[in-house]
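Methods: holo model generation. Sequences were used as deposited, without trimming of termini or removal of tags, and paired with ligand SMILES retrieved from the corresponding compound records. Each pair was processed once, and we did not select among multiple samples. The sequence and zinc ion SMILES for this entry were:
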Amino acid sequence: MAKQRCDGCETTVKIAGGIGDLWGFDFGPTGGMILELSDGTEHFLCLDCVDLLPEEYEPTAEDVAALSAASE
Ligand SMILES: [Zn+2]
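and the model returned the structure below.
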């Protein structure tokens, strides 16, 4: 099991590493993913934040920063 902090909302989410850990987490974000953006930066985002990224163009680090600002 691993935990990682979302670069957008700064929530610590669990990344599935074992079936027991995966199903033992019954409240809050359920996961996330590392995105490599068009500007070459990599960001770990929870699934909620992935949903919030713009779909009409390739997100950049600025869009991730905007997620962080919006969550405060
Ligand atoms: Zn997030």
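The helical segments are 19-23, 47-52, 61-70.
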